[in-house]
Amino acid sequence: MAHIKPALVENIRKDIENLNMYNETPGEGITRILFTEQELKARKYIKKRMREVGLEVEEDAIGNIYGTLKGSNPRLSPVWTGSHIDTVPHAGSFDGMTGVVGGIEALRVIKESGLRHERNIQVIVFTSEEPTRFGKGCLGSRAMAGDLTRNGTNYLVDEDGKTLSKVLDELGYNNEQFHLIKKEKGDVYGCVELHIEQGAILERLGKKIGIVTAISAPTDLIIEVEGTQEHAGATPMPVRRDAMAAAAKIIIGIEGMARTSDNPSMVATVGKLDVFPGATNVIPGMVRFTVDMRSDNFKEKEQIINKIEVLSNAIGDIEGVKTSIRIVSHEYPAVADAHIVEVMKGVCDSQRKEYNLMVSGAYHDSMFVSRFAPFSMIFVPSRGGISHHKDEWTDYEDIKSGVDVLAETLLIMSNEKENTERNE
Ligand SMILES: [Zn+2]
Question: d(Cα 148, Cα 107) in Å, to the nearest integer?
Answer without folding.
Answer: 29
